[in-house]
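Hypothesis: this fold can be encoded by more than one sequence.
Test: take the structure tokens below, design a sequence, compare later.
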């Protein structure tokens, strides 16, 4: 497994496994504590694993957590997603930068997203399973959502949004969220 820094988002990493394929399919390691440690992250900090299944065109996000935030490892274990990270850490050298990724069951890439960054994705295949490993227990009272179609972010979603939660449909703009966080 190889770790690569994401230049657009300070502190973000892509972890690329080495799949071993044959006529049966493939095998690869999707988490390696030593590799996580090698980039200065604590592999024992992750406390919850979750999985979402989405149909083609489903859009989830943009989400982040208030308070101490939430760091996460994200991987598409089946299918393919267009994945988005927005750095909203005011003290970060990459503040307000965006980064886009294609995560898929074929590559099994894992993306590390630092706390304080917004995250969202859109399913590109009929079925897409996305796994999350987060560094603190989820508390819905800390959920923050930003409009996926905020013109200030100009995210190039590859498909029309086929379906999304009511919370995501009604999300405020980035400017509104930042203003709320200041007060």
């Amino acid at each position: 497994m190889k770790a690569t820094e994401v230049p657009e988002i300070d502190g973000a990493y892509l972890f690329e496994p080495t799949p071993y394929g044959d006529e049966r399919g493939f095998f690869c390691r999707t988490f390696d504590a030593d590799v996580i440690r090698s980039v200065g992250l604590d592999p024992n900090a992750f406390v919850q694993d979750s999985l979402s299944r989405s149909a083609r065109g489903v859009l989830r996000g943009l989400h982040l957590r208030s308070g101490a935030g939430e760091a996460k490892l994200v991987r598409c274990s089946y299918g393919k997603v267009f994945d988005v990270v927005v750095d909203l850490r005011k003290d970060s050298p990459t503040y307000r930068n965006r980064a886009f990724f294609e995560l898929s069951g074929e590559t099994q890439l894992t993306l590390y997203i630092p706390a304080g960054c917004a995250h969202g994705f859109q399913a590109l295949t009929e079925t897409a399973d996305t796994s999350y490993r987060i560094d603190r227990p989820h508390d819905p009272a800390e959920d923050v959502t930003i409009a996926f179609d905020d013109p200030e972010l100009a995210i190039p979603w590859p498909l029309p949004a086929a379906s999304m939660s009511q919370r995501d449909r009604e999300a405020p703009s980035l400017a509104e969220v930042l203003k709320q966080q200041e007060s």
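Helices lie at 33-38, 166-169, 174-182. DSSP finds three helices and 13 strands in the chain.
Hypothesis status: open.
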